[in-house]
């Protein structure tokens, strides 16, 4: 606590001369007309392109969500979780780097997507892949406004993996053994007993997704209260929210699984006098997640319905012979008798299992606490220099997380069965393990993070007739300290922006940042990142001024270079690295042996920044009195100087393979290029009492490795010239038909048999290996789109939203599809290759061997990820205001119902909606109410 107080006091003391500040929003009556961009707020009409914004106050009236960026791909062109597919964007909450999942949609006023280099350059190196700027709500009204909101949500699983039962598994496993030339382990008599289901405790058929273990649905509840108001000198906003989410588990500790989140946010804006104002923002989030220790979902993908030594999770005591006092006493001494009827089953090879663990292994609790604080002061220096302002900011965040757990040990029992006159009875049991409840709460995975930001800026904003000038000089820096990491994550830069426009018609902007990075050697740690932007409002020209159909039309373009160290993975990549690896020569005595330090990395003290070189051109406009609005951008971004140990430019003797040693140094060598077009379009039209709005967002994108360090034997192995997202694998020619086909064809190894996959021998050397892998698809879809539709009729509002991706590929390589060894069988193996089904088979022969023949990347397993998803439908009803006339305590009520993740239209829908080894995907149905007081 003393460190927190010290840092806050330090920040307050330095505010007047601190090193940086993001321009805070100067509130107007219309949030939509003002857009928060880097370190300032501008009128939407004066944006220079590569920027998209979403008014979350309006969006929240018709779209209930629980995640700040949910559904944004349907509202913003060029966003698909990344901005222009560049990688992870920097998320700023009120100008401070913070997690997007720690601010709720109800707390947000506006989200700005800064895509272009011109929009992000002032933030420095760490913003080089785009910025998502989230601005929280502030009080803007006099008096007191209060609103409360409550939601009840129902989550319904879409599907579960379809695993085969015990009898089918036993038959197919025997077949796999036979395919591998091995003896069967399950007799026909065994299979008969399992298939008859005559005694599920002696002949188990374990189904993880049975209703006795899994509920049909689970629920989420949340409540939020918002307060805002103020007077002439101060305004405030507060948000208090509480949510609780259950789980699907229906037994044992799983019944108590839940996640609880409490958040408290407060924002205060103060006017101290005519030339000084300030603000204080604070947020606290308390997050707790309680879970069982069973690993139930991951085990569901691997634990077979039975085995050679069958595991029975729960065995009824009633099956023990009444005269067997020894066995009964052993069982009754157990700490874990389930419902007074069952004891925990196991085997010598499986002394733990997720079912027993659900009851007996205890539980764990994940705890996270986040405290966030930022404050600033703004000084109007108009009395000194007209149009001059000084703005300052200080922020400090603390995040701590840890796990506490109760870890119990438990005994399991293996039953020996006999049949007396047609009745199965347990004649003896074998105990494995010991019951042990320690009562000790264990602490693990503790992690602490501290964030400190300081910034200051001078703004000059003047108009001289038709000449409008804006200049900003700023200093900006922050550090993130995390336990277990020696180096802090840092960002420090100076920024300069000079923006000019003539009569809001001709625009010119020069923005640059001077950056610093400790990841590089001295003498190479500083760089300048310049971006130039131009704009032309065509609407103000004589040839369009009197065209009534055109409300506004503006053309913009920018070019710039941003230096960044985001793609420099760690520190000291420029320096030598030596390790003692125990080779047989040397001069260093370690453990009575002679050793030397092997070189693992050479030095390159000239290592420099990676450069983002970007050209962008954009067109924005409004037609027919706002009936049609559009924003389109063409961009081409080159990422030059990506690091690699460029073996092609160093002699071969710079590295050895045994002992492993290398003097190859990291160099700025590899280059990539991304080119694309994004579009955001909205159509607004009224038809009588129907007020409609239809929107489309889209992006088409291509990429290429334009320069790549490689030394490959064949052209098809080259990365250079190929897509950054290229998917590589073998070209499959079908199945090997028979022994002659195997003998006369190229193959991976001599274990190949009929029914294995046959691959094309690209280089004709008679062997299938990595040299035969080619590009078989793209991991990332080149075309993405989103649509949203709103129709208002009287007091009803219907909102729908969908998104789609087209042209991408994936591999069916999950545990339910790549089945080999002693893996669990799903229904995909039913159409396996056998001599009888050779002409119709869609799956390779079964095998108990490793998967290196069939279960490797090839176009046999490739599938199209093209899909369109109906993400949201919500119907909102606002009760008529006439109900609340007069001195009513309630000023307004909205009731809404919604559904999320409702529909997927895709060729591979079933596979894409299936989760294996994790909790299932779900559809969500919600009922909510908001009351304004």
UniProtKB/TrEMBL annotation:
Keywords: Signal. It holds the Pfam family Plug. InterPro entries: Plug_dom, Plug_dom_sf, TonB-dep_OMP_SusC/RagA, TonB-dep_OMP_SusC/RagA_CS. It comes from the Bacteria. Residues 1-21 form the signal peptide. The keyword Signal applies. Residues 38-131 form the TonB-dependent receptor plug domain. This is TonB-dependent receptor plug domain-containing protein.
